[in-house]
Automatic annotation (TrEMBL), chain A:
Alphabetical list of SUPFAM superfamilies matching this protein: Histone-fold
Coiled-coil regions, chain positions: none
Region annotation (Disordered) ranges: 452-506
Domain called TATA box binding protein associated factor (TAF) histone-like fold: residue spans: 12-75
Record-linked InterPro entries: Histone-fold, TAF6, TAF6_C, TAF6_C_sf, TAF_TATA-bd_Histone-like_dom
Family label: Belongs to the TAF6 family.
UniProt keyword annotation of Ribonucleoprotein present: no
Molecular-function annotations in GO: protein heterodimerization activity; RNA polymerase II general transcription initiation factor activity; transcription coactivator activity; translation initiation factor activity
Keywords associated with the record: Initiation factor, Nucleus, Protein biosynthesis, Transcription, Transcription regulation
Organism: Folsomia candida
Subcellular location: Nucleus
One GO cellular component, as annotated: transcription factor TFIID complex
Protein name from the UniProt record: Transcription initiation factor TFIID subunit 6
From TrEMBL, chain B:
Keyword Metal-binding listed: no
Residue ranges annotated for the TFIID subunit TAF5 NTD2 domain, each copy included: 118-257
Protein name from the UniProt record: Transcription initiation factor TFIID subunit 5
CDD domains: TAF5_NTD2, WD40
Compositional bias per record (Polar residues), positions renumbered to this chain: 18-35, 336-347
Swiss-Prot/TrEMBL keywords: Initiation factor, Nucleus, Protein biosynthesis, Repeat, Transcription, Transcription regulation, WD repeat
Organism: Folsomia candida
Keyword NAD: no
SMART domains from the UniProt entry: WD40
Superkingdom of origin: Eukaryota
Length: 643, 752
């Protein structure tokens, strides 16, 4: 009768189970009737035992029933406990089927007693210790590593997917901290016209947070490597960064924009390390900020020039690093709705197929695509190999090309050998000769073929995501579409890109029109890159991040520092008042913007900064340029204030 | 038979237990749990003192006789020959009848009432008719009448099983078990285990409790019949239906096995009917909660005089101060006797007073006596020793520095995480002043941590102690061995998991209860075990000290009893029996005159330590009770259960005040801030929640007369009073404690 019972309440053991148990203890051919009788009795007793065992579990304040509970339960029934079932971890049940029978069993390995005796004594378990921390201070939970992040990553994610969820939860979440029963109450339309709109995010940073922000940003782009390590460590591990995320992302985005123009390789690397740290932070969900992060990272991959002396500096490392970041972003945040990977792939393809794009950009796009996995390589890189090969040939064999270009060519060849060759090999019949390769790949055939022979073991990064159909849009079309897209952060007076659920007007903005540094002080910090290159960068919470691309203005005197402070106060005041926000915001399409390339003769796909002109382009004396930039910045901000 | 163990070395102090009470628990020494063995005879004896009147014709002549038979069996078994003869004579029982008496088993005789020759097919159809009748009846009565569905279901099923219609029983069960209310899930599981007649007779059968009520001899209230409260209209509706349809089966059950307490008034709705459901035996009767409970606090001893004594003289005169205290105490008690009025009339006075009381207490002015406080002589309490006074004075000084908490001013929470202790830690307890933290482990070890820089020292050896100058000022310091100072210490002695700990108020002793059925008293000076109290036959779930002086303590165990002990006697002073399942937790009332117990039969009871009677029965939880805590003013009791609900009860009438639903998992700790304005709860859902308790009770105080059943359904949920919610990362919270300065301490093991 038990066979038919599916409910947990009336179940008995299966007759078959009883029979197989009987077999295991040496009773063959147990009669059905007996087995049934046994099954009922055994189930009854088992249930009684478990019922009491649950009491022991409850009293021990656990939710997991342990063998010890069963033992105790047997003990109070005056039954000898079953010894030897004490295990630390849960006992895995193995499953086997065959001969029409399905069986769950516990694996019992035969153990050689000598092995047990001879085995080294297991490590003594760690002693039980007590550690104290403040769970709450006067009703507020401090954001320390011991406490859970104020905004859990799941919550952040659910907010990304469904911004309305925040409204629904408005009532509960405000339980912490201040107790204001009015918020979230149903709006009474009849009695009053006042509408309670809950601020969706607190965008005021506390003094501590402001200090933290200042310290972190200074340390990240500052000269001291030890401080930087600490700061990055903090960004990676700190659970309370959620509130500061908009600022940090803007900081990075602006920083990249400025430093790409300045070709300040060191700072770009620092900023990318910040991105890395934020990505690695387990408590943050960055989807809302991808529109700032992706353009920045993509810039560091495909930009024509990332350093002052492309022939000497190792900007390739930055491109590789940033490419890995992009891959990580795609892996983590790609969804069917935001199509992050599709759009990133499109950016790289555009750069790759463009005849005019500089070789360094070609390198970047190849690396970027390669990092996205073998499927992407097959679909997008391999068909282009011939064209790329032609360009390389032209550059390497031809004349009139700079040393830098040549270096690029070598690098491209190398990267193709490393990533693409194994894929090509696996996708083509082994019988192919070099000639076959040549017809297919042209100039690069040699590289691919020899690499095959040389290092067949080198495998590319594991596939991340398969390319989606949209990716095969004709490149030209993509090109135009990306160019005509409204782009983020377009100076001179940009509408600051904001995440829809995070209202603008933060107290602390790293934007083109508000100065970050509350102290108003500007310092010159010298960065030693080790190779004798010395960069001088104004810091003071990232002073080099001024929107450098604004139209050249007449040099105006530096604005008095008081101005800046007043600006900050102003914004903070306005933010305190708060303006009703649009709650539902069409935000499924994260505007990825497009990568920034710094030079005036930048590839056409980059139309972000139409006014970018090269006059600022430094040659060797970076210091001078930095100073200029600082001045420009200040003027910009001053002007905006006056507006 | 050992429950009667009234250890009477205190007869002179008037601490004589009431006589009937001794009969309360015949602990059967067989393997079966608790008072299960002989519930019926006892209740039969106790009819007078219960004083209840079965309203629904619960006793027929047949069953009366049966009861007598059972008693006879009991007498025979224990060889009370003369009594047996007398009883036979008086009850006019012939020899032939007495031979019918089943030899060993009252159980069987109890169950024999299930014997029935009804057509087994009728059960299903009868129940189905009842069910559809209730479903189709008016909403007004639906839920009230619906309350009988569950007991009728149980009895029909058991009857089927008893009459060996196993297959029919199984189909009946599977057909209707899904229709029962969700909160009977646990009962359904245990009911489902009974599939055969033998199971029913088996002494371990959890449903014996219900079946024990079947004879109908037992009077409702004390042991026995499933209780349903119903309005008059609803009952007449039901009766009419049963008569019309001639559902004899159900009619029998409703008559014999369900006690319907009728009340006049509007029938309750769904929420109101459900909120008090859940107890294994139905609801509490009005009569259960009628006894007056002195829930007020005892007067705090006047410590200012003492402090002066302390300053002026040396410790030698402390005894004199104590005498003075006791004198003033008696005077107070006389006064309080005089002023004790009826509780109803004085409640407004109390409420207005309550707001002031804190200030008065702080300034130590002559407070008016609490009309609800028990007379000071009601329960003999140990006199304050010097060490208690020092401690109390310290507490008073500390309390002057206390932050007064309010919803606008929430406490700081200091969390002590026990690392590497996942799955091993079973209990955490703080000393009252928050300086010591005791942790009980499943491995039977107890560890005490000092949370202050002060190390835990051991007393010197006896030979060394002899050399100490006893007159020296710092004799207490000299007694301790400096070499032995450690920041944490082990107490080893138990042979099973330690399930509870409690520090004595003077911090010199520790009480622990364990799976090994013993309670141990430890000295925190010598760090050794002082006494092992053996009395419980099964694991002891909880042991707590009385708040007055660490003399009395109470314990609760798997044997379905709670016991009251004194540290100087090896046997319990009182055995509180009445719960139908494990007594999972116990707590002293702040005035030490009462203990509250929670059980896995899903009820909370309040027992009078003096008389040993159950004076309050509170039902409504849908899972086994886990924690209890009295409010600081002693009027309210907060309970939590495995249904992860928190319920607040009014001791004045046993009514449910409010219910907190916010927790998502078992709540294992409840604490009140020192002035009683903030309630903190926490448990396995890794969250400490703070509630505005003042607001919670505001309505009650203003309404007069306390919470009544049925309360306004909307008010039942107190979730809007949540004022703080603090999640831990991955640490379940086992213990909460407010320090004297109102800092909330919380603790739990980190889960990997």
């Amino acid at each position: 009768m038990g066979d038919k019972e599916s409910s947990a309440t009336g179940t008995v053991l299966f007759v078959d189970s009883i029979k197989s148990m009987a077999e295991s203890v040496g009773v063959a051919n147990l009669e059905d009737e007996a087995a049934k009788e046994l099954a009922e009795d055994v189930s009854y007793r088992l249930k009684l035992v478990v019922q009491d065992a649950v009491k022991f579990m409850e009293q021990a304040r656990r939710t997991k029933l342990t063998p010890a509970d069963i033992d105790y339960s047997l003990k109070i029934k005056n039954i000898e406990p079953l010894y030897g079932f004490q295990v630390d971890t849960s006992t895995p049940f193995r499953f086997a089927s065959g001969g029409g029978r399905e069986l769950h069993f516990m694996e019992e390995k035969e153990v050689d007693i000598h092995d047990v005796v001879g085995a080294p004594i297991p490590k003594i378990p760690a002693d039980i210790v007590i550690r104290s921390h403040w769970l709450a201070i006067e009703g507020r939970q401090p954001a320390i590593p011991e406490n859970p992040p104020p905004q859990s990553i799941d919550l952040q994610r659910s907010e990304c997917v469904d911004p309305a969820s925040k409204l629904a939860k408005g009532n509960k979440s405000n339980g912490t901290g201040s107790y204001t029963p009015t918020v979230g109450k149903p709006i009474k339309f009849k009695s009053s016209e006042q509408v309670f709109v809950k601020q969706l995010a607190t965008h005021e940073l506390s003094v501590e947070q402001q200090l933290y922000y200042k310290e972190i940003t200074e340390a990240c782009v500052g000269s001291e490597e030890t401080r930087r390590t600490e700061a990055l460590q903090s960004l990676t591990n700190d659970p309370g960064l959620y509130e500061m995320l908009p600022r940090l992302c803007t900081f990075i985005a602006e920083g990249v924009r400025v430093n790409v123009v300045q070709c300040n390789l060191a700072l770009l690397i620092y900023l990318m390390r910040m991105v890395r740290a934020l990505l690695d932070n387990q408590t943050l969900y960055l989807e809302k900020y991808l529109h700032e992060i992706i353009p920045s990272v993509a810039t560091c991959i495909v930009s024509k020039q990332l350093c002052g002396r492309p022939e000497h500096d190792n900007h390739w490392a930055l491109r590789d690093f940033a490419a890995r970041l992009i891959a990580q972003i795609c892996k983590t945040y790609n969804t069917s709705t935001n199509n992050v990977q599709t759009r990133i792939t499109r950016i790289f393809c555009t750069a790759l197929i463009n005849e005019k794009s500089p070789l360094s950009s070609v390198y970047g796009s190849i690396v970027g695509l390669c990092e996205l996995g073998p499927e992407v390589i097959k679909t997008f890189v391999i068909p282009k190999l011939k064209d790329v090969g032609d360009r390389l040939e032209l550059c390497l064999e031809g004349v009139g090309h700079t040393q830098a270009d040549k270096a690029s060519c070598v690098k491209i060849r190398h990267i193709i050998a490393k990533y693409v060759a194994p894929i090509v090999k696996s996708s083509r019949p082994a019988t192919d000769t070099l000639e076959d390769y040549k017809t297919e790949f042209g100039y690069l055939a040699q590289v691919l073929k020899t690499q095959d022979a040389k290092a067949p073991s080198s495998t590319p990064a594991p596939g991340i995501l398969r390319p989606t159909p949209q990716q095969s849009i004709p490149a030209t079309q993509q090109h135009t579409s990306s160019a005509s897209k409204p782009v983020m952060g377009a100076p001179p007076v940009p509408v600051r890109p904001t995440t829809p659920t995070t209202p603008t007007l933060p107290k602390f903005t790293v934007g083109s029109n508000v100065v970050v540094n509350s102290s108003g002080l500007q310092q010159q910090v010298t960065i030693n890159l080790g190779e004798g290159d010395t960069y001088s960068v104004p810091t003071g919470s990232g002073m080099s991040l001024r929107p450098y691309i604004s139209p050249p203005l007449p040099r105006a005197p530096c604005a008095p520092t008081t101005r800046h402070i007043s600006v900050i106060r102003h914004t903070s005041a306005s933010s305190a008042v708060g303006t009703p926000r649009i709650l539902a915001y069409p935000r499924r399409n994260v505007n990825l913007g497009s990568p920034v390339a710094s030079n005036s003769n930048a590839p056409a796909f980059n139309l972000n900064f139409p006014k970018v002109s090269n006059p600022f382009q430094p040659t060797t004396t970076t210091t001078a340029v930095v100073i200029t930039s600082t001045t420009t910045t200040l003027t910009t901000s001053t002007r905006n204030i006056n507006d | 038979m050992e429950g009667q163990g009234m250890y009477d070395n205190r007869a002179s102090s008037g601490f004589m237990p009431h006589q009937q009470n001794q009969q309360q628990v015949p602990m059967d020494t067989s393997n079966s749990a608790g008072q299960n063995g002989l519930p019926v005879p006892i209740s039969a004896i106790k009819t007078e003192d219960g004083g209840t009147v079965g309203g629904s014709g619960a006793s027929g002549e047949r069953s009366e006789k049966q009861a007598v038979m059972v008693v006879l069996g009991f007498l025979k078994k224990h060889n009370f020959k003369q009594t047996e003869e007398w009883l036979k004579k008086e009850a006019q029982i012939t020899e032939s009848e007495s031979k019918m008496l089943p030899s060993d088993t009252d159980v069987q005789s109890v169950l024999s009432s299930y014997a029935s020759d009804e057509n087994p097919d009728e059960y299903s159809s009868s129940y189905f008719q009842l069910k559809s009748f209730i479903d189709s009846s008016l909403d007004t009565y639906k839920y009230e009448v619906g309350q009988i569905l569950w007991p009728v279901f149980v009895h029909l099923y058991l009857e089927l099983v008893y009459n060996s219609h196993e297959v029919k029983a199984s189909t009946f069960f599977s057909r209707f078990s899904k229709m029962q209310e969700t909160f009977y899930e646990a009962d359904l599981v245990s009911l489902g285990t009974i599939m055969k007649k033998e199971h029913l007779i088996n002494s371990e059968n959890p449903f014996r409790i219900l079946s024990s009520s079947l004879t109908g001899v037992s009077k409702p209230g004390n042991s026995g019949v499933y209780v349903v409260r119903m309005s008059r209209e609803a009952l007449s509706l039901l009766k009419r239906f049963l008569q019309e349809k001639r559902l004899k089966l159900i009619q029998n059950i409703v008559q014999d096995r369900i006690f319907v307490e009728v009340y006049d008034g509007i029938p309750r709705g769904k929420a109101a009917a459900h909120v008090t459901a859940g107890h294994i035996m139905g609801e509490a009767l009005r009569h259960d909660n009628k006894t007056k409970v002195y829930y007020g606090l005892l007067k705090e001893p006047d410590l200012q005089n003492f402090q002066m004594d302390e300053d002026d003289d040396d410790a030698g005169t402390g005894g004199g101060g104590g005498d003075k205290d006791s004198q003033s105490k008696t005077a107070d008690s006389q006064k309080s006797d005089a002023t004790t009025g009826t509780p109803a009339g004085t409640q407004s006075e109390k409420s207005s007073k309550k707001k002031k009381s804190k200030k008065e207490w702080m300034t130590n002015k002559k407070a008016k006596n609490d009309p609800n406080a028990p007379p000071i002589t009601r329960m003999p309490l140990p006199e304050l020793r010097d060490i208690d006074k020092i401690e109390k004075a310290k507490a008073l000084r500390e309390s002057a520095k206390r932050v007064t908490l309010s919803p606008e001013r929430l406490p700081s929470v200091c969390f002590y995480t026990v690392l590497n202790g996942d799955q091993q830690v079973t209990f955490i307890k703080w000393s009252e002043d928050g300086t010591l933290m005791g942790v009980g482990f499943a491995s039977s070890i107890i560890r005490i941590w000092s949370l202050t820089p002060a190390k835990l020292k051991k007393l010197k050896q006896a030979t060394d102690l002899q050399d100490i100058d006893r007159e020296a000022d710092d004799v207490l310091v000299r007694m301790m061995d400096d070499r032995s100072s450690e920041s944490d210490r082990y107490l080893r002695g138990h042979s099973g998991a330690v399930y509870s700990l409690d520090f004595s108020p003077d911090k010199l002793m520790l009480l622990s209860s364990s799976e090994d059925t013993s309670i141990r008293l430890w000295s925190l000076l010598t760090w050794t075990c002082l006494v092992v109290y053996k009395g419980h036959l099964f694991p002891v779930w909880k042991a707590v000290f009385s708040p007055h002086g660490g003399y009395y303590f109470a314990s609760a165990g798997h044997d379905r009893t709670a016991r009251l002990w004194a540290t100087d006697t090896p046997q319990p002073l009182r055995v509180f029996a009445g719960h139908y399942s494990d007594v999972t937790t116990i707590v002293f009332h702040p005035n030490s005159n009462y203990v509250a117990t929670g059980s896995s039969d899903r009820s909370v009871r309040l027992w009078d330590c003096v008389s040993g009677n159950c004076v309050r029965l509170m039902t409504g939880h849908k899972g086994s009770i886990q924690t209890l805590c009295f409010s600081t003013d002693g009027r309210f009791l907060v309970s939590s259960a495995t249904d992860s609900k928190v319920m607040i009860w009014d001791m004045a009438n046993g009514g449910l005040l409010t219910m907190l639903h916010s927790h998502k998992a078992n709540v294992y700790s409840i604490a009140f801030s020192k002035e009683g304005s903030i309630l903190a709860t926490a448990g396995l859902d890794n969250c400490v929640r703070l509630w505005d308790f003042m607001k919670m009770i505001e309505d009650v105080i203003s309404e007069e007369g306390g919470a009544t059943i049925p309360p306004d359904v909307k008010k039942i949920s107190g979730d809007n009073l949540l004022v703080g919610e603090f999640y831990t990362k991955s640490t379940s919270v086992f213990s909460l404690h407010f320090t004297r300065r109102n800092i909330l301490l919380a603790s739990g093991p980190f889960q990997h």
